[in-house]
Specification:
Layout: E1 4-6, E2 11-13, E3 18-24, H1 39-52, E4 56-60, H2 73-87, E5 94-97, H3 101-110, E6 114-117, H4 127-134, E7 138-141, H5 159-177, E8 184-187, H6 196-204, H7 206-210, E9 217-219, H8 224-230, H9 238-250, E10 255-258, H10 261-276
Length: 280
């Protein structure tokens, strides 16, 4: 049976890796804060991502960079909903990157067809119910702590085992609550409550998360992992990102979440060709 991800009116074939393009509508994102914060800017940026090869657009209105504080619900809605409305007609699924049930509900009403929650639906007690009600795919990501505290002193006995166990338990909880198994994706949460060593261990063991049996999303784009390892500024990390994306695709990622879609599109296509050993 073909592997696929079903959205409300679209189906995404996962027989080849897919690219999630990032549309930040925040003034304080670590990478591109403020550049696409208005409706027109978000729409123009999203169009350019789709033209460059993005298969999914991920719209976020709350920065989850290390140290970030929570954004009030109405402020996040004011950022996200106009952007979702502006990009929902571009012919690709639209994801809403949020921890809040109210934002999930209004974003789906505005055209979003995927929920991407860095707290794996734990931050807001109403999030699981919202996901059941909305009946759209949801990505469960691992994070130790909160964005405000996650990098203070992250500790694990065995980071790979603990992250995998956490995701398995969240999958089970969500399914017991009524979320369909086919609607669940998983993300090990590179950079979210992890040291450089933790992140490297997770990247080295990506196949472990593919074993969970659900689509695997990996987000490494422009993160501090490469900045700390090689002392490069955020916008000097493209080639490191390319290596991380190629590794992710080689080791089981179904979806890679990236800023630089045009470059990573080429990386993904070439890596997939090498994996298959033949032309697609």
């Amino acid at each position: 049976m073909a592997r696929e991800l079903r959205f409300k009116d679209l189906t995404l074939d996962l027989e080849r890796p897919r690219i999630m393009g990032i549309v930040n509508v925040t003034p304080d994102s670590f990478s591109d804060g403020g550049r696409y914060a208005d409706r027109e800017g978000a729409a123009a940026h999203a169009r350019s991502l789709v033209e460059a090869g993005a298969d999914i657009l991920d719209v976020g209105g709350e920065s989850t960079r290390p140290g970030a504080t929570e954004v009030p619900v109405q402020e996040e809605l004011d950022r996200v909903i106009p952007a979702v409305e502006a990009v929902a007609g571009l012919g690709v699924p639209v994801s809403v990157d949020t921890r809040k049930a109210a934002v999930m509900r209004e974003a789906v009403a505005a055209g979003a067809t995927l929920i991407n929650d860095v707290s794996a639906l734990e931050h807001d007690p109403d999030s699981v119910s919202a996901a059941v009600e909305l009946d759209v795919p949801v990505c469960l990501m691992h994070m130790q702590g909160t964005p405000e505290t996650m990098q203070d002193d992250p500790r694990y006995e065995d980071v790979v085992s603990e992250v995998k166990t956490y995701l398995a338990k969240r999958m089970e909880h969500c399914q017991q609550a009524g979320i369909k198994a086919d609607n669940i994706l998983v993300d090990p949460g590179i950079g979210f409550g992890k040291t450089v060593e933790h992140n490297l261990a997770l990247m080295h063991a990506l196949e472990n998360f593919a074993e969970l049996g659900r689509p695997l999303l990996v987000g490494t784009s422009r993160k501090s992992l490469t900045g700390k390892l090689f002392d490069r500024a955020v916008h000097e990390r493209t080639y490191f990102d390319a290596a991380l994306v190629a590794w992710s695709v080689t080791h089981g990622a179904d979806i890679v979440r990236v800023h630089d879609v045009q470059a990573m599109y080429d990386v993904v296509r070439m890596t997939e060709l090498l994996k298959r050993g033949r032309r697609p």
